[in-house]
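[09:14] KT: can someone run the structure on this one? pasting the chain below
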Amino acid sequence: MRLVLDSFWRAAAYCLNPRVMLLSLLPLGMMLVLIGGLAYFFWTPALAAVAQWLDGSVVIGTLNGWLDKLGAGGLREALAPLLLVVLATPLIVIGALLMVALLLTPAVLKLVTARRFPALERRGAASFAGSMAWSLGHTAVAMLALLLSLPLWLVPPLILLLPPLIWGWLTYRVMSYDALSEHASPAERRALMKAHRTPLLMIGIACGYLGAAPGVVWASFALFAVAFALLIPVAIWIYTLVFAFSSLWFTHYCLAALQAQRENEGKKPPLAPDPPALAAIELEAETLPALPHHDR
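[09:31] RB: done, structure tokens below
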């Protein structure tokens, strides 16, 4: 737990570094271009499809009746865009995570290594293809989990538990791999991720909740169309900065744990000496005179 807290404060301090702040704008620009293009082509038909689904839903019809009785019938118009934003948020979060993992994490890793771990030996075989395959594979698993758990989101407590847990698991798997891929050998990485699975998952879940918090604020913007359009870049930048912090947190933790793991391996006691009885027999055999050799 001490290492978790130490890595947390170090990551928070590094987030104030101007270089990290500037680097967080790179994924922001790419996500804005991507989301802008998707919204331009698909927002209207997607909104119409969601509105049609809501009109045919018995549960939503009952909810609309309650809203009418409470004098809040105007909220029905905001329900479709709000739901669409909530449904799109996991995709945007995962996209931001991939952007950070592929673009920001390598720069963060170099920064932390140069400042804190310059003497840590590099034993890994980091590659863009390997990182991409690892990230996409785990992202596919997370997407499947999100899809399967989607009906459970209608249960009020579970919507606050399931998405952060799934995002936390994905963050833990992706960012731990990226933090260790350059410095740890495959065997070291597997051993470390196994030995530190619980604290790493704790960090991932905490980062999952941090990543979910801007989504709640973002979804509330759907009630105000103008503000929503203007504050999209702010919301995406918050996501990016949260994942930058997550990357720093995992990097500090994983590299410190790797350094401690190697130090512990170097302090292992030497092999035990031979048993006294066996040593005495070997010493006696060495001191015996050589037997004379007679030719036949």
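[09:33] KT: thanks! Confidence is low (pLDDT under 50) at residues 222-226, 277-288.
[09:34] RB: yep, looked fine to me
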